[in-house]
């Protein structure tokens, strides 16, 4: 990583606040464990849970905007230092951003009655702050290529607002529409980031030249995802032809599979830090195929597709990225602890159980909830066990960061 600040300045900061990946990876992962435990416990009737909105609204919202968006913030606000050469967010400003994220999580755990609007406002502030920080870095060095993340973050803010509109009664359909748009926008973030880092990490570790992206294939992949988002917005007032949805989801699935094949996943089988990335990304085309199956009448609902994208594509890829990025940014060898292979496998199995299994055998849906939650808890529990110290202590090589 580029050395932008000196060691004496860095040593005055607590290690947890030296770069954004540290607190957001740590607390985001810990929060996901708590959120999954609360959700599965309430589903099974082990205890009563009545947060802001409802337990279903809270689960859907918090896994997307509480967990995933925290990791996105940590990754982007760390990567932008490397991209731009500017000193990354750290110290008190970073602490304030983390506290803003935490305030949103606390506010949405409460049933605030007529003060629900206050919880919504607190929660809605986080992503625009991240977007403005990203834009500030990019504009200062005129690195327009990376400005793409600012509209994506603002789009997620709109999706978040749609979800809140369902709670306050302004737009009852906002929960489903907002959450689905958020899933697709995050999938687009994965498309952009994954296309940069997965082939780069793979070629660097395996010793071959990084495959150059095909412009037409990248365009087809991005445009088809954007087109599905547009059809969702259009569906508020008009009926979208089923045939159009079929074409779009088929295009997403085929383009993503072609894209992945060029990254040479077969070369990664001996390296858990690599095969975990490739297998997790595979859930993007799997989700697209399940969505295609729904529109063709072969799958009972969009739920399996959504959970392929969320549990597998997001949860799996995030776990794989956290494991690799945390080692690289703390000056440690890029070699996963042996138990992380179990963590990756448990998370990928959780994704299969929550998406593909109920699509084939809907009668297993209820069992799938608890088994998938167990896989998530094993995966992220092992990550916390082996990475909590790494994220909260100085770099192993003594460099800043």
UniProtKB/TrEMBL annotation:
Q: What UniProt keywords apply to this chain's record, in alphabetical order?
A: Membrane, Transmembrane, Transmembrane helix
- Pfam families attached here? NnrS
InterPro entries to which the protein is assigned, alphabetical:
NnrS
- The regions listed as transmembrane in this protein's record are 21-43, 63-80, 92-110, 116-139, 151-175, 181-202, 214-238, 244-261, 273-300, 306-327, 339-360, 366-385
Q: Which protein is depicted?
A: NnrS family protein
Organism for this UniProt entry:
Corallincola spongiicola
